[in-house]
Amino acid sequence: MSSTFHSFRVAGALALVGALGLAASASAAPRVIKLKGSDAMQYDVKRIEASAGEQLEVQLSTTGAMAKQEMAHNFVLLAKNAPVDALVMEGAMSRATDYVPASRKQFILAATGLAGNGETVKVVFNAPKEPGEYVYLCTFPGHYMAGMKGVLVVK
Fold it and tell me: Residue 18 — φ and ψ, nearest 5°?
């Protein structure tokens, strides 16, 4: 078999596979963002930059001396138009839903469960497609007010 014929067969086969949608697409793994929370009620990362629509995996690890019911952390990413103070206040009364108020879920873009000492929680999501700044925070009572917040900057 001539090399020209062989090249034609390979190219033709690849074109057919692609046309049938059978090509193996190597979907990129999400970019991992590691955050830490502690008894100081602060994230160690206060700013995350992302491309519009980029897939991210936020991993939140918690260390501390207190029991989980007394000190735990989560990561909650909010929409641009979220009523942050009202959401946090209502969240403080929402223990059954990890302090994330179900009545405000239209403003929640991504959220983890609560992580106590030695635990790690994670969430995978796509960054918003609209460029801008999006607040992320911990909804455990008192933590947002103590400064446990940051911003996701979408470019």
Answer: -65, -40
